[in-house]
């Protein structure tokens, strides 16, 4: 198959491109990424001589570019990772989230329809379901109730994907995954921020009381789920992705502080995020029973491997911390 992967220089997209090229020796990946502050060509260094990988710097909102890539490379499937992805940035600057996440998705859907692409897969998030109380899990039937400009823009994109299936019969799938962690995670997000701050002798900032809960999944397990949905997903269906691994932010900070031998006083409580969702938890039963997906990582193994990865890749994350600090 020839795939158009968008956002393939970001955290999850780069892991996915590596997974696909390592798994299917006859697949070609056209990797379209704008290289925003979060995109990083060095995430793909090990793939630069791979003849089945073509990197193209460009915007998913660029109609002519997307259409020409589809036609020139005989694209059979589009997998859309490209997005503005950081909730805090969406609170201070929502406009770009609508432009990239909504307008960009619309452009990809139009191109898929006009050029006759066989499959379209939208990589979405559990955040579109809003926030849970202390019990229960998000299923695919949970109503959308996004609370941040980021999640609202992702929900808007999901609804367009749904509409293109219902209206034009486009062969689509949506995956909604919980929080990812693992290598190449941009160091503005909780886990890599805490590891890299820990190494640098800085505080580990926790929003509010640190009791908010996220459901963590190793990025490579997310990639195998997307692979399965791409190949076996039923047209028009949504699949939730998650590994039953809920942790409070306090627990995450403590695991990292313990591993790095940091005193607990380095964990500092700071001003809460506006509209901070209390708890996310995914019910992945549909993906497990209909497509046979199982995660490989336990969190205990994955988090140690991830901390070690950051300890061994200072040359990768140090320039990114600078970028994030400068707000570019
Ligand atoms: P990321 O911020 O690390 O990467 C996003 C990539 O998209 C970057 O490489 C960036 O350069 C690129 N991009 C941004 N705007 C673009 C544009 N207009 N045109 C082309 N490329 C553009 O994000 P991530 O964490 O890898 O997330 C990837 C996708 O997965 C997103 O759609 C996100 O909503 C979704 N998701 C993320 C998580 C998570 O925990 N990180 C969980 C569930 C779903
Ligand atoms: O400094 C921090 N301190 C803190 O307490 C940061 C950056 C975060 N937090 C809290 C906020 C959240 O409760 O940690 C939790 C995780 O925060 P993020 O890493 O920013 O992730 P989150 O907001 O949960 O969103 C992530 O998961 C779902 C991704 O960024 C999204 O793209 C994805 O859709």
UniProtKB/TrEMBL annotation:
NCBIfam families linked: dTDP_gluc_dehyt
Reaction(s) this enzyme catalyzes, per UniProt: dTDP-alpha-D-glucose = dTDP-4-dehydro-6-deoxy-alpha-D-glucose + H2O
EC number: 4.2.1.46
Entry annotated with the keyword NAD: yes
A single GO molecular function term of this UniProt record: dTDP-glucose 4,6-dehydratase activity
Annotated PANTHER family: DTDP-D-GLUCOSE 4,6-DEHYDRATASE-RELATED (PTHR43000)
GO terms, biological process: nucleotide-sugar metabolic process
Transmembrane segments: none
Domain NAD(P)-binding: 4-305
Requisite cofactors: NAD(+)
Name of the coding gene: rfbB
Protein name in UniProt: dTDP-glucose 4,6-dehydratase
Domain of life, per lineage: Bacteria
Gene3D superfamilies from the UniProt entry: NAD(P)-binding Rossmann-like Domain, UDP-galactose 4-epimerase, domain 1
């Amino acid at each position: 198959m020839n795939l158009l992967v968008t956002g393939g220089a970001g955290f999850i997209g780069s892991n996915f491109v590596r997974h696909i090229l390592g798994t299917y020796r006859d697949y070609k990946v056209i990797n379209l990424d704008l290289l925003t502050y979060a995109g990083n060509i060095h995430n793909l260094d090990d793939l630069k001589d791979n003849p089945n990988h073509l990197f193209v710097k460009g915007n998913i909102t660029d109609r002519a570019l997307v259409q020409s890539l589809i036609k020139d490379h005989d694209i059979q499937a589009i997998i859309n990772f490209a997005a503005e992805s950081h909730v805090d940035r969406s609170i201070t600057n929502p406009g770009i989230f609508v432009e990239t996440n909504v307008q960009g998705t619309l452009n990809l859907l139009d191109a898929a329809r006009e050029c006759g692409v066989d499959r379209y897969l939208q990589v979405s998030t559990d955040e579109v379901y809003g926030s849970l109380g202390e019990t229960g899990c998000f299923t695919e039937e949970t109503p959308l109730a996004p609370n941040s400009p980021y999640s609202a823009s992702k929900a808007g994109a999901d609804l367009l994907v749904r509409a293109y299936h219902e209206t034009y019969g486009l062969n689509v799938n949506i995956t909604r995954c919980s929080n990812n962690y693992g290598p190449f995670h941009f160091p503005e997000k909780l886990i890599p921020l805490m590891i890299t701050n820990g190494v640098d002798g800085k505080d580990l900032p926790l929003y509010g009381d640190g009791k908010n809960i996220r459901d963590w999944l190793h990025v490579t397990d997310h990639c195998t789920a997307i692979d399965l949905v791409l190949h076996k997903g039923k047209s028009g269906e949504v699949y939730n992705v998650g590994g039953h691994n809920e942790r409070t932010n306090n627990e995450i900070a403590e695991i990292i502080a313990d591993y790095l031998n940091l005193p607990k006083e380095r964990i500092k409580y700071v001003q809460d995020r506006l509209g901070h969702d209390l708890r996310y938890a995914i019910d992945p039963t549909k993906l497990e029973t209909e497509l046979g997906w199982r995660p490989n990582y336990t969190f205990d193994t994955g988090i140690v491997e991830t901390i070690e990865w950051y300890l061994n890749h200072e040359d990768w994350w140090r320039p990114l911390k600078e970028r994030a600090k400068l707000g570019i």
